[in-house]
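Email to the structure team, subject: 3-phosphoshikimate 1-carboxyvinyltransferase model.

Hi all, the expression group asked for a predicted structure before they design truncation constructs. Nothing fancy, just the tokens so they can compare against earlier work. One-line instruction: predict 3-phosphoshikimate 1-carboxyvinyltransferase, return tokens.
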Amino acid sequence: MDRPFLDLAPCGPLRGSLRVPGDKSVTHRGLMLLALAQGEGRLFYPLKAGDTLSTARAMQALGAEVLEEGPHFRVRGQGLRLREPEDVVDCGNAGTLMRLLLGILSGQEGLFAVLTGDASLRRRPMGRVVEPLRAMGASIDGREGGKKAPLAVRGGGLKGVSYTLPVPSAQVKSALLLAGLFAEGVTEVVEPVPTRDHTERLFRHFGLPLEAEGPRVRTRRAEPFPARDLTVPGDFSSAAFFLVAALLTPGSEVTVEGVGLNTTRTGLLKVLREMGADLEWQVVEGEAGEPVGWIRARYSPLKGVSVDPGLIPLMVDEVPVLAAAAAWAEGETYIPNLSELRVKESDRVAAIAHNLRALGVGVEEGPDWLRIQGGGVKPGEVEPFHDHRIAMAFAVAALPVGVRIWEPHWAEISYPGFFQDLKRLCGAS
Ligand code: S3P
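Reply from the structure team: attached below.
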């Protein structure tokens, strides 16, 4: 069968400004919480892409009304009590959807639901949410004893627990906090290493019970709560591709506007600055408890660094694009603490190493680290391994020399229009 591909010509300086699509994490959570609220609320400027459309469909299957209003969504919630879905719920490629929804469904008294997903999602570890949810009393079964989807849930009978996250994961934390809204007593999550805190901020936005004290976050059973409109900031993870593209293409200057600057997401800015990047940013406003502002990147000769392992959870989705920057830096870049990247949409450690090699870059791959020899890339072909971020990161890595990208449509999981935006900025003078 013919595989689709896209040939990108070498790109000149990137100049201009852009707004990137809405934040994926906030859109998933916004849709879920509005589906649990009472009455109607609007989600302004959400991400409308593969992953979040899976969430919209899932919440509809569970009884919420989700209507498109131009670029926005209008959601009519079910007021904490969801409807039993008539069929298997397909989570597509979206790990956030499957894990957070398991938390919500575990709390739905008597409701039965089966969750599945695409081949990538069915390979991903679900035991990390299933085990603590079972400790709360959830009844969940599935493939490999409940470690893999499809997963079947019979909701109800939850009791709060205190759970310390064994690996930093905002998805696990969020699944337990959502389950905690339906549990007897207090549900506490302890995170030794901070992860993105969008769920906590949205709980506050909707007036849901939440206490945060250092590494501990607690919630308890929620009373029915009214819907409230919510504006989704631009996705920092999507902005990151354009920032790095500008840094490594001589003569470039790009400004991303209206982008989320939550510091649990922006670890990449620190690493890039340490590499010598000319980057400025400023928070201008707050949207639903999230800081929002602009980021400007100008072409900068970069140098290799040894990345602080503690920063990885604050840039867990930006490692592929950091590898693109490292390929163009002078000297070696060492990126540790990557074990979680092995269980993303693809094995991202292997996918990064494969594509760097395909572009003529020296790379060594360890079980949870990468060592990248900088100095530039040669024209070649990019294999996304069914992973949106690999497709976009390696389009960026090869931008100055041109590249063939196989199956470019994978970018649409989080960024429909990515290649159009890239071409527009390359062409603008
Ligand atoms: C996400 C958390 C991260 C991230 C994913 C989105 C979220 O996953 O990689 O893209 O919205 O909570 P983990 O929680 O598995 O680290």
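The chain has two domains: 5-22+233-425, 24-193+210-215. The chain has 14 helices and 22 strands. Ping us if the truncation boundaries need rechecking.
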